[in-house]
Sequence to fold (336 residues):
Amino acid sequence: MLSNNDYTVSITENQDTVNTVETIRANLKKQTSKKTDSLKLSNSFHRLGYHKKANRVYWCATDWIYKIYSDGEILLHDVNFCRERLCPMCAARRSLKVFKQVSDVMDIVDCTYNDLVPVFLTLTLKNCHANSIDLSKTLDLIYDGWFRMTHHRKIQRVVKGWFRALEVTFNTENSTFHPHIHAILLVDKEYFTGKDFMFTSDWVKLWRSSLRIDYDPVCDIRKISNERYHSVSEVSKYTVKSSDYIFEDEYFMDLIVENLGQALKSRRLYAFGGVMKSIAKEIGLDDKDIAEGDLVNIENFEVREDISYVLKVFRWNMGLSEYVEIDEKNVYTEQN
Fold:
C-alpha cells in the first residue's frame, strides 16, 4: 500500500503491473474530492475576475506521473501543482511537507538536545467579522502579539526553540473568522518543577498583555509525551480547510474566498525560532520557504540510476471526474 504521505511504496515481487496500477488508482481516488473542490475554487476566482489565478487552479494536479521500478517500488515523479495558497490540492501537499519538515527537526532535537522537552501551545483571541479588513487587522494583532511574547524576557529564558503555524477557521453560524496559532515549544526538563513554570492562567495573562487587548483570551498548553505525532499533525495541518470556503452559495463563497485571499496574501504562515530554526537551517530548510517550493519531492529519496522503471501517467478526466491512466504516455526506461 502507499504510505500515508502518498509518496512511495514497496510491493512484493509477485504483484504484477495490474495490482501496482490499482494501488496508484486507490491513492488517486483519495484525491478526487480535493480536485473537485479545486475546480469549484477556480470557478470562484473566475467570478471574482482573477482569471489567470483561476486557470492555474483549474489545471492544478491534472497529471500525476509515477515511476514504477522493476524491483517493485513506486515513486511519485511529477505533478503539475499550481501552488496557489487556497488551492485544496496544493494545501494537502503543503501540509504533508510541513509535517515532514517539523518531524525532521524534532528527530534531531530528540537525538541532540536530551535536556529539552516539547510542549504544545494553542493561542486564540475573539473571532473577527468575515471581511478582509477585519481579518487582516486581527492577523496583524496575532503576529505582533507573537513577536512581543517570544521576545518577552521570561519566554526567552524559558523557551529554547519553537515552531508556530497559523490556522484560520470559519464559523458559518455567525459568519466570523477564527484565526489562532498552534505552536510547539522546547523547554528545559527543569521547567516543570522550577520557579519559571507557567500555569495556563500565566500564559493567558502573558498572551493578553502581548496582544494588548482588554479581555482574557483562551489559551491551552500541554506537555507532549506519546502524542508527538498528533502535535506535529496539529501544527502542520492546513492553514485554511477547503470546507471553510467551498460553499454551494456562490455569492457567499466568493465573499469568503476574496477576504481570505486578501488577508493571507504575502504572510508567513509557518516559522521556526531558536534552536529549531538553527536545526532547520543546518538541514537546508529555508525559514522563508517553509511549505513552499517543491510540493512533489517531499521525501529526500536518492536518484536510482542502476535500475529500470516504467513511467505511468494518470490524468484527470473532466467528464468522468476521476483520474484515468493514459496508456499511450507510458514510457519504459532502461538505466545503464
Observations:
- The chain has two domains: 1-81+296-336, 83-293.
- The CA atoms of residues 124 and 180 lie 5 Å apart.
